[in-house]
């Protein structure tokens, strides 16, 4: 009798910290990426504050300075490429929810290709734009703001690379818990796309 009670007692023993409370509304991975995005919005906010301070408060001449002409048309095409990648990653997520594995694989691959194309065009723009980060306040903030976004695109491509590998290995399924590896990178990718629309509008159009 004694041994039975001891055995039952051991079943309920728990060593280490208590398990994290799991919300019924949102899973931990999705909550984690949303909190990370909030922190990144604050980071971009600091860069935008610097940009508009330099442009409105500290600047006394034309903006961009004379002799600097931004390739608005090329940046516009690049914007269309990146925005279209939001539709392909959404297609991938909806496809896996419906159990369409092939469409999910195509959506993830197209998203990766469009993101890589965007990054390649941006690097090519840096090479041919005609000024560097050392050329005054405009050069510094231009490369700082667009380069910060480019770094986020690169991180997104890394996440999409892993998602593509897992998709071709058959890791995802239609149940909510089985396609977080598509949904979480997709949330981050939508953030990257929306942030670029703001960067493009502020830097190239205004």
Overall shape:
elongated
**Helical stretch count?**
6
Q: Determine Rg (CA atoms, Å).
A: 23 Å
Give the overall pLDDT as a whole number.
90
List the uncertain runs: 1-11
What letter string, H or E per element, gives the SSE order?
Answer: HHHHHH
The major pleated sheet works out as:
none
Strand element count: 0
- What is the distance, rounded to the nearest whole angstrom, between the alpha carbons of the first and last residues? 81 Å
Classify the beta-strand content into a percent band.
Answer: under 5%
Computed structural class: mainly alpha
Helical coverage, percent range: over 70%
Commentary on this structure:
The chain is an all-alpha fold and 206 residues long. The chain has helices at residues 2-11, 28-58, 72-97, 101-128, 136-168, 180-205. Helix 2 packs antiparallel against helix 5 (136-168), helix 2 runs parallel beside helix 6 and helix 4 runs antiparallel to helix 5 (136-168). Mean pLDDT is 90; it is low at 1-11.
């Amino acid at each position: 009798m004694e041994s039975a009670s001891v055995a039952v007692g051991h079943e309920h023993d728990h060593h280490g910290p208590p398990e994290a409370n799991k919300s019924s509304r949102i899973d931990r991975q999705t909550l984690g990426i949303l909190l990370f995005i909030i922190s990144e919005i604050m980071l971009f906010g600091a860069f935008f504050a610097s940009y508009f301070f330099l442009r409105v408060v500290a600047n006394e001449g034309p903006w961009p300075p004379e002799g600097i002409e931004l390739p608005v048309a090329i940046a516009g095409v690049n914007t269309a490429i990146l925005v279209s990648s939001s539709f392909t990653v959404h297609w991938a997520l909806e496809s896996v929810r419906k159990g369409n594995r092939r469409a999910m694989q195509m959506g993830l691959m197209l998203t990766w290709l469009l993101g890589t194309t965007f990054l390649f065009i941006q690097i090519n723009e840096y090479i041919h734009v005609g000024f560097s980060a050392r050329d005054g306040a405009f050069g510094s903030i231009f490369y700082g703001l667009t380069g910060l976004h480019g770094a986020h695109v690169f991180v997104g491509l890394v996440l999409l690379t892993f998602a593509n590998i897992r998709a071709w290995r058959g890791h995802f399924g239609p149940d909510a818990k089985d396609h977080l590896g598509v949904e979480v990178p997709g949330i981050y990718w939508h953030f990257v796309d929306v942030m670029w629309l703001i960067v493009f509008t502020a830097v190239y159009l205004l």
